[in-house]
Amino acid sequence: MIRDPSDLQRYNASERANHWVVGICFILLALSGLALFHPALFPLTGLFGGGVWTRILHPFVGVIMMLFFVVMFFRFKHLNQMSDTDWEWVKRAKEMVDGDDHNMPEMGKYNGGQKLLFWFLGLAMLVLFVSGIIIWRAYFSHYFPIGVIRLGAVLHAAFAAVMIIAIIVHVYAAIWVRGTIRAMLYGTVTRAWAKQHHRAWYRQVTGK
Amino acid sequence: MALQSLDIAKRSATTTEPPQARKTLEIAKLIDVSKCIGCKACQVACMQWNDLRDEVGSCGGTYDNPTDMTDQSWTVMRYAEVESEDRGLEWLIRKDGCMHCEDPGCLKACPSPGAIIKYANGIVDFHQENCIGCGYCVTGCPFNVPRISKKDSKAYKCTLCSDRVAVGLEPACVKVCPTGSISFGSKEDMKELAEERVTELKERGFKNAGLYDPAGVGGTHVMYVLNHADKPSLYSGLPDDPTIAPTVSLWKGFAKPLAMAGIAAAALGGLFHYVMKGPNEVSKEVEAEVEKELEAEK
């Protein structure tokens, strides 16, 4: 249902659904993972039916997330190649965060920050998946030497923590930049939004 | 409070202090490998007291039977044939099982509150009703002791017969050992007993005889008298210098507060940024420009 025909399509339905499957998996994984990471958060296991269920479910949700993330990764990979302008944007990001985006270079569909996040998430998902398999006691841990399992546990925790921080930044950026969240909810953004934040993309899709 | 003999000194995934008003005697089991004849009475007693029955396995070409600890075999005798120039062939037999570390790696790694308990007397005990089956205890243990049951996914290991010790009895293996190779008492007494035995062994030509009470894990509540204490690894891979692995210490130490602080900072940083800088809205100027462009199109 499109109410304003001048709006621009940013994501199609399949891309949005893909993103939300990954997003929901992430929330479940972050809550259950944090529950097993810090004693203060162990009560979060109650959301999953107790400690045992949390331990059983977490890795399976992880596998689902990885499958859908891989699809998303290859969908958006070509749009996330870093250019010189992107690095310029990253260098000036502090000015924008401080409230002045007048000197920001024109961005395509994604800005330098979004692209860096994309590549970080790719790396984090890879490390989390591999280390997660290694520390998955019920099925896989017995294939690995103890030193590798220990390293896997540290890496899993470290990358998960940094990824949670990265996703907080990701979500906050979407909240902060008004008019963004609708792109992931129903796919469109206003022309003004596109011109303001992704001018090169705006020119490309409108021909202006 | 429960029995004084069950006073808790450390509890897994618990960040507050345990009750400490009462002081309990620290206990220890001393296994003198030089007196062990490898009869496996200790294994049998362990199975009998704890109502465990392992599957009948297969012979691996040694006397090790079963060949490894399992959720049903909390202690196994390990037989090592060691040849050296000065002593020729030696049969080094060691009763393997939980060492009941003063600083238990399993307890440090466990994410489930109260699944692993260290009693004030030094016994490290698994409480299966709180165990979630993640296997982190296996990851944390420097001695490769905990075993996860394939049936119920709970972790099991030697309890040092905490139920017997609680009511003033010695562990079942101590009770049955026919050669007096296993002794039980206060840690202090056991160290004294070990010292006497070590002197005796040295007199008999075992110049490297000594007590195995590794400092890397804060000492243990199961100690060995070894006739070759300079090389514990001769005894079927007993670790020479066991410690909690640095990866485990990092994972369960510094990483926890650091990660929590980082996550909290990100969330609060977002909130305060929004409150102090305001939302990033499309400027009126750009909106007007776009309006004009659309008008022009029409």
List the helices and strands of chain B in order. EEHEEHEEHEEHHEHEEHHH
Which stretches of chain B are low in confidence, meaning pLDDT under 50 for 5 or more residues running? none
- Main-sheet strand order of chain A equals 1-2
What Rg of chain A, in angstroms, do the CA atoms define?
20 Å
E-strand count of chain B: 11
Note down, in words, how this protein is organized.
The complex is a heterodimer of chains A (208) and B (298). By secondary structure, chain A is mainly alpha-helical. Chain A has a single domain, classed as Transmembrane di-heme cytochromes, Chain C (Fumarate Reductase Cytochrome B subunit). Chain A has eight helices and two strands. In chain A, helix 1 packs antiparallel against helix 2, helix 2 crosses helix 4 and helix 7 crosses helix 8. Chain A is elongated. The two termini of chain A are 25 Å apart. Chain B is α+β, with helices and mostly antiparallel strands. Chain B folds into two domains: 248 residues, Alpha-Beta Plaits (2-Layer Sandwich), CATH 3.30.70; 44 residues, no CATH class. In chain B, 31% of the residues lie in helices and 17% in strands. Chain B has a four-stranded mixed β-sheet with strand order 9-2-11-10. In chain B, strands 1-5-6 form a three-stranded antiparallel β-sheet, with no helix packed on it. The longest helix of chain B is centred in the C-terminal third of the chain and has 23 residues. The chains are: A mainly alpha (208), B alpha+beta (298). Chains A and B meet through helix 1, helix 2, helix 5 and helix 7 of A and helix 3, helix 7, helix 8 and helix 9 of B.
